[in-house]
Amino acid sequence: METSTDMTLSFQHPLHCIFSPLLQGMVPSFSNEHVNEMVIQTSNSIMADDDPQDVADRERIFKHFDSNGDGQISSQELGEALKALGSVTPDEVQRMMDEIDTDGDGFISHEEFTDFARANRGLVRDVAKIF
Ligand SMILES: [Ca+2]
Ligand SMILES: [Ca+2]
């Protein structure tokens, strides 16, 4: 009987091992089957597409920032867009460029902007209210 218990445990997903004790602690009647379902659902929600409102917001902001419409945001375009929000120093613009322009080519591509927007949803929502 001891061997069969060990075999069952060895098939558990690493995430399951983390979530299972936590959930069982919170909900005593929680079965392992439910935990597995939850872990799968959690992973899917990370992979799933974004909230349509978030996508619409960031597309709008990207188009607004990309004032010449070439599909990428230069540091000049970023600076001009940020000036419209309030006073910014060239240093602040540079810091933002450094943060968003992950491949360092001096332009924020649509992909880089999307990554940034996904990681900073709260910020994007606030900016979307202004534009
Ligand atoms: Ca541009
Ligand atoms: Ca870039």
Question: How is this structure best described in words?
Answer:
One of its GO terms (cellular component) is organelle. It comes from Phaseolus coccineus (Scarlet runner bean). Keywords: Calcium, Repeat. The chain has 131 residues and is mostly helical. It has helices at 2-10, 14-26, 32-47, 52-65, 75-85, 90-100, 110-119, 121-130; strands at 72-74, 107-109. The longest helix has 16 residues, at 32-47. The termini are far apart. Mean pLDDT is 78; it is low at 43-47. Residues 66, 68, 70, 72-74, 77 line the site of one calcium ion. One calcium ion binds next to strand 1.
Q: Show unreliable segments.
A: 43-47
Q: What is the arithmetic mean of pLDDT? A: 78
Helix fraction, binned, reads over 70%
The counted number of beta strands is 2
Look at the structure and name the CATH superfamily: EF-hand
- CATH architectural designation: Orthogonal Bundle
* Main β sheet profile: 2 strands, antiparallel
Alpha carbon gap, first and last residue: 65 Å
Bound molecules: calcium ion
Tell me the number of structural domains.
Answer: 1
Structural class: mainly alpha
The strands making up the biggest β-sheet line up spatially as: 1-2
H/E element string?
Answer: HHHHEHHEHH
Shape: globular
Rg over alpha carbons: 22 Å
The fold-level CATH name is Recoverin, domain 1
How many H/I helices?
Answer: 8
Beta strand %: under 5%
Brief overview:
Helix content is about 70%, strand content about 5%. By secondary structure, the protein is mostly helical.
